[in-house]
Amino acid sequence: MPALKRNNPLAIAASIGLMVLFIISLHSVILADWARQDTHSFAWYKDITFVTKDRGWIVGTEGVILSTDNGGETWQPRARFTTDNFLQIHFTDEYTGWILCERNIYARGNNPISYLRKTTDGGRNWEKIEFENIGRERVTRLLFGPDGRATAFGEGGIFYKLQEDGVTWKKYQTAIHFLLMDGAYGENSLGAIVGAGGTIMFTEDGGLTWEKATLMGDYEARFNAVFFEGKAGGWAVGTAGHIFHSVGGGRLWRPQNSTVTADLNDVYFTSVQNGWAVGDNGIIVRTRDGGNTWYDEKPVVSHKIERIAFNGDTGFAIGMGGTLLKYTGSANDPGTKPTMMRRN
């Protein structure tokens, strides 16, 4: 009888099934790691965006542009038309896009530091556009609202708004005097702009008006990035590992423990539970509970990571030294399945 039991086909089949499940589980864990993609470049990548699930863009220093037509499986360099630095790229639709540019310091002359490039043919051609009366002030970020409203901001709290002609950026006076670094919109016309000196400005009317938010904790931190997920949840990250969280649409922000002290440069949530923040020295921190607990993931590079974005289940992180990291999410992660999103 014992021999018959050991050779029982049902028992053998059950053992094989358990082994298969173990292998599948192990494969899912392996896929959850960040891995480096080779782009054959040492450029400093500054921004990444996806226009559709297949079409995406990366921009960086000295006029570097990469594009993908297969969801980020491979990236191809585009022909350079300038040696100026590209800081940000954003598409309002599949054909209309903007690049925030910074002139080469050695060839700038008396020209303004910041200017724009605009395409209306899906990136084949890029027209140069200047900011109105900008002088030597530097623009750090463009912010596009869901209703088409666009804002640019940067040093000394400078503020520009895109006019109805879709080309002219008009300067506006504000009461903000700190360096502004990033902005984002959430649902229900909620949004925030963050920057130095613990600056967080929030809006509840889609950017028509901005008010100063209340911070509980270190109000001197410089915030480098902000992200909204869900109806009212927001996260802002910055220097010395600071992470602040808002559950009320941006009026009040409370600190969370990132577990790291390196500067954090960007943050991205795929659901109200699942989020990542990236920063200097290759730092990547992860949360699975909305930021109540963060943990430091195994580093892949030692370079500064500038930006992180997700396209469906696949994540991408970019930065110095041609850094392009790719992440395929684990099926074991709790929360809802992420959907394709574009950065503001």
CATH topology name of the largest domain: Methylamine Dehydrogenase, Chain H
What shape does the CA trace take?
Answer: globular
| CATH first level of the largest domain | Mainly Beta
Low-confidence spans:
1-6, 9-14, 16-31, 335-341
What count of helical segments does DSSP give? Answer: 2
- Judged by helices, strands and strand pairing, the structural class is mainly beta
Topology:
Elements: H1 2-6, H2 9-31, E1 34-36, E2 45-50, E3 56-60, E4 65-68, E5 76-77, E6 85-91, E7 97-102, E8 114-119, E9 127-129, E10 139-144, E11 150-154, E12 159-162, E13 169-172, E14 180-185, E15 191-195, E16 199-203, E17 211-212, E18 214-215, E19 223-229, E20 233-238, E21 243-246, E22 252-256, E23 264-269, E24 275-279, E25 284-287, E26 295-296, E27 305-311, E28 314-319, E29 324-328
Parallel strand pairs: 18-22
Antiparallel strand pairs: 1-29, 2-3, 3-4, 4-5, 6-7, 7-8, 8-9, 10-11, 11-12, 12-13, 14-15, 15-16, 16-17, 19-20, 20-21, 21-22, 23-24, 24-25, 25-26, 27-28, 28-29
